[in-house]
Amino acid sequence: MMMRQLKTVTLIFITVSISLSVNFAKAQKLHTTQNLSPKQKSIISIASLTAKGDLINLKPALESGLESGLTVNETKEVLVHLYAYCGFPRSLRGLQTFMEVLEERKIRGVIDELGREASPIQEDGNKYERGKKIIGELTQIPQPDSLTGYSAFAPVIDTFLKKHLFADIFERDVLAYPERQLVTISVLSTVGRVEPMLRSHLAICLNVGLTSDQLNEFISEIKPILGRKKTKAAKAVLDEVLNRQ
């Protein structure tokens, strides 16, 4: 009888131990930090260095991006996207620098993957309304019918934003929303003194699937480019956004 009871207790102990081990393993898996991918890190560096106008360091960053898996068309899309946030001159200089990088790599015998082109945009419906719908998807806030703030003060800028930035640019599918947002927050952090816009786009990052850990990693990635002062300012805005979650 004693032997049978001992076997029963031992069996229960083993079963409980296995169950605890499995649950612990599941818990560890759930809490595993999802890091930014090498491609995403390259997007951050490329966008920030281009916005800063640091073409010397942009060249190795562009090389690194290609080596990390960015296609030629994805890289071009990064450089095109950022013009909306830091202007044509920076974007064009970035593209010219990228052309130099590709030519130098070609001379060395490196043939980089071109990647796919953007899919044709369905021009159904009013472009302004399409842009308005995309803003609603990104912000997860219904867009009002009446204009307020700067949009009411200068309605033409509201038209440009909705019809061009959010329809023409954000509808292009070469880059997904998370990657476009990484470009945007990289440029805004680099430009500096645009806290309301940076705050909005950091919140959008969370809406489109980037995590708080990834956004904190973004700050670490961009710090060597920004320097202490601008990094501190960007981190303060990020902390404010995360504390509201």
From TrEMBL:
* Annotated Gene3D superfamilies: AhpD-like (1.20.1290.10)
Under the heading InterPro entries, the entry gives: 4CMD/NDH-1_regulator (IPR052512), AhpD-like (IPR029032), CMD-like (IPR003779)
Q: Which Pfam families match?
A: CMD
What GO MF terms are annotated? Answer: peroxiredoxin activity
Membrane-crossing residue ranges in chain numbering: none
In what residue span(s) does the Carboxymuconolactone decarboxylase-like domain sit? Answer: 33-95, 160-240
Q: Which residues form a coiled coil?
A: none
Q: Which domain of life is it from?
A: Bacteria
PANTHER family hit by this protein: 4-CARBOXYMUCONOLACTONE DECARBOXYLASE FAMILY PROTEIN (PTHR33570), CARBOXYMUCONOLACTONE DECARBOXYLASE-LIKE DOMAIN-CONTAINING PROTEIN (PTHR33570:SF2)
- List the protein's name: Uncharacterized protein, gamma-carboxymuconolactone decarboxylase subunit like protein
Gene source species: Belliella baltica (strain DSM 15883 / CIP 108006 / LMG 21964 / BA134)
